[in-house]
Amino acid sequence: MDLEFFMNLMTDYGPVAIFVIVFLEYLNLPGFPAGVIMPLAGIWASRGGLNFFFTIVITVAAGLLGSVVLYGLGRAGGEFFLKKYYKRFPKQKELIEGRMDYLRKKGVIGVFISKLVPVMRTLISIPAGVIGMNFGKYVVSSTMGVFVWNLVFVGAGYVLGDAVFAML
Q1: CA 9, CA 122: separation in Å to the nearest integer?
Q2: DSSP code at position 90
Q3: Which of 19, 45, 49 is nearest to 32 (CA)?
Q4: Rounded to whole angstroms, how far apart are CA atoms 96 and 84?
Q5: Disulfide check for 154: which of 42, 48, 148, 166 has CB 3.0–4.6 Å away?
Q6: Is 130 helix (H, G, I), strand (E, B) or coil?
Q7: Structure pTM?
Q8: Cβ–Cβ < 8 Å for 65, 22
Q9: 10 Å Cβ neighbour count for 54?
Q10: Domain carrying residue 51
């Protein structure tokens, strides 16, 4: 999938496309680069296609929903899910095991910080579910981290909108 594909999706489906792509990216699915779509959404907002605040709300809601789904998978499937995941992605086992230890030590602060780190921001949800982190606290810390991350990317697109759009 290329940049033009995502731009066409946004033009054709607007906020729904933004929500779905960001949601799928927060599920850690390959090929759905929220790091591309969120700045594009910011550019679109800067050009009057969408309200900036609404764009932030859409991306945070999508990111939180994706995070909650992964938390739920970790909570419901626990070790069974991780064994299957490790078979499919063996290189991530050490990373996830380390994240579980990190979460046990740092708790909700660990979730918030992890939501600000590429790759970890999506993967942290599974270990949080597996270790049985309090759901309410998980949601609050995830929302804060997702908000900061998405604000940076959507905001960058919004601020640099005209310059970036001219290059496209």
Answers
A1: 23
A2: G
A3: 19
A4: 13
A5: 42
A6: helix
A7: 0.84
A8: no
A9: 13
A10: 3-167
72 vs 33, higher pLDDT? 72
Closest CA to 65 of 153, 145, 139: 139
Structure token pair of residue 93: 């086992």
pLDDT value for 21: 86
Q: Domain count for the chain, please give it.
A: 1
- Helix, strand, coil shares of the chain, percent, nearest 5, are 85, 0, 15
Residue whose C-alpha is closest to residue 147's, from 13, 55, 73: 55
pLDDT score of 151:
96
Distance CA 164, CA 156 (A): 10
Q: With 70 as the cut, is the pLDDT of residue 165 above it?
A: no
Q: What is the pLDDT of residues 120-129, one digit of tens each?
A: 888 889 889 9
Say if residues 56 and 48 touch (Cβ distance below 8 Å).
no
